[in-house]
């Protein structure tokens, strides 16, 4: 309760009464502490092999669960492969970690309705990911005929209440890269929702006001969206300021400021349709800083700090917990976490890089000072 507040606390930018009876907020001198239900990450790339072993602790230290993306080489296209991938993740978790990976299947033109039934029975697979062929990293095996070859699978997914996670971009090279999300909504996503209104859909890592409007126009509980830290804090200028910035390059690519503003307003406004999905995507430094660099931003170590910044700047810290910890499990029909984390408003510096035996990874906001620091209680 806020009645135990100790003043002064100059960091506050919002009415204290918003927190009454909802979560614990404490101020001790210049520091502010915020207690949240432990968040989940509803869109995460963990990779495999040495890369998996190197990065998994950054997610496991902050998040209770994560929807793990299936775009490995080869992709995770079967329930058996998903079970095996899950085991490889569990083997490299830190000692005493309670982190739970929630697995996904990679949808292809050859996926069968029987595979969806197996996935549902497994209690390991929680969703199926749609990558239009060629849309992003390791998507060359993705879908080419959604409304033809994949339709029986989508119908079975609706029957099994298995969510479809969508990378929402067309891959037509004649469409401007900054317009590909908007065109995907008009030509693929709207027709899909109209044809299969009972299918649960998550539009992943949205980047435009068009996506915000589409999600808000759909029935609550049937269509939702994940939102990344980068699309809340950066616009497309961040790709070019001071020279080409490869560590700010991701897909879908960053957009204009008007789109960032629209996403921030939707997320901090308290809508249940939007929830945390970092799209944290680690690549070795040499694969980012090269003639043809990989798409992906590694934000797992800083994601919660950055989300807190967005909500504080909007005067909406009272809505942070629903976005990070409630909306996602509610949409998936899973219980909310019972564990807690503490967010402390105390400055800390992001490492310039993380060094591993296989090379270095540059995190989002490398070398910068952030104001919020999470810790598990």
From TrEMBL:
One Pfam short name: Amidohydro_1
PROSITE patterns, per database record: DIHYDROOROTASE_1, DIHYDROOROTASE_2
Alphabetically ordered keywords of this record: Hydrolase, Metal-binding, Pyrimidine biosynthesis, Zinc
Enzyme class label = hydrolase
Spell out the InterPro entries in the cross-references. Answer: Amidohydro-rel, DHOdimr, Dihydroorotase_CS, Metal_Hydrolase
Pathway participation: Pyrimidine metabolism; UMP biosynthesis via de novo pathway; (S)-dihydroorotate from bicarbonate: step 3/3
| Substrates-to-products reaction catalysed | (S)-dihydroorotate + H2O = N-carbamoyl-L-aspartate + H(+)
User: Which cellular component terms (GO) are annotated to the entry?
Assistant: chloroplast
Q: Is ATP-binding among this UniProt entry's keywords?
A: no
Task: Tell me one GO molecular function of this protein.
Answer: metal ion binding
Write out the GO biological process terms.
'de novo' pyrimidine nucleobase biosynthetic process; 'de novo' UMP biosynthetic process
Question: Domain Amidohydrolase-related: where?
Answer: 41-342
Question: What's its EC?
Answer: 3.5.2.3
Q: What is this protein called?
A: Dihydroorotase, mitochondrial
Q: Which organism is it from?
A: Castanea mollissima (Chinese chestnut)
């Amino acid at each position: 309760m806020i009645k135990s507040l100790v003043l002064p606390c100059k960091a506050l930018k919002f009415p204290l009464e918003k927190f009454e009876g909802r979560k614990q907020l404490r101020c001790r001198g210049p520091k502010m502490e915020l207690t949240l239900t432990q968040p989940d990450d509803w869109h995460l790339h963990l990779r495999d092999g040495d890369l998996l072993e190197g990065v998994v602790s950054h997610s496991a230290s902050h998040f209770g669960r994560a929807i793990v993306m299936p775009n490995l080489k080869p992709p995770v296209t079967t329930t058996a492969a998903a079970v095996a991938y899950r085991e490889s993740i569990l083997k490299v978790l830190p000692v005493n970690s309670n982190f739970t990976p929630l697995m996904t299947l990679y949808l292809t033109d050859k996926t069968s309705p029987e595979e969806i039934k197996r996935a549902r029975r497994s209690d390991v697979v929680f969703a199926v990911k749609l990558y239009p062929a060629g849309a992003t990293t390791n998507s060359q095996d993705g879908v080419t005929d959604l409304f033809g070859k994949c339709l029986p699978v989508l119908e079975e997914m609706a029957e099994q209440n298995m969510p479809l996670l969508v990378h929402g971009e067309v891959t037509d090279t004649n469409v401007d890269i900054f317009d590909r999300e908007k065109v995907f909504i008009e030509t693929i996503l709207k027709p899909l929702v109209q044809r299969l209104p009972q299918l649960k859909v998550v539009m992943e890592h949205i980047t435009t006001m068009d996506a915000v409007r589409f999600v808000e126009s759909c029935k609550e509980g049937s269509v939702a969206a994940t939102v990344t830290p980068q699309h809340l804090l950066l616009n497309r200028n961040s790709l070019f300021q001071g020279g080409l910035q490869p560590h700010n390059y991701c897909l879908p690519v960053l957009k204009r400021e008007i789109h960032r503003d629209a996403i921030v307003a939707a997320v901090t406004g308290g809508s249940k349709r939007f929830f945390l999905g970092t799209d944290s995507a680690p690549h070795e430094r040499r694969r980012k800083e090269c003639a043809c660099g990989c798409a992906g931003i590694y934000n797992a170590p800083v994601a919660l700090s950055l989300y807190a910044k967005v909500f504080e700047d909007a005067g909406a810290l009272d809505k942070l917990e629903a976005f990070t910890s409630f909306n996602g499990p509610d949409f998936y029909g899973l219980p909310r976490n019972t564990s807690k984390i503490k967010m402390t408003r105390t400055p800390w510096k992001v490492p310039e890089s993380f060094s591993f035996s296989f090379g270095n990874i540059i995190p989002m906001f490398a070398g910068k000072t952030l104001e919020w620091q999470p810790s598990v209680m």
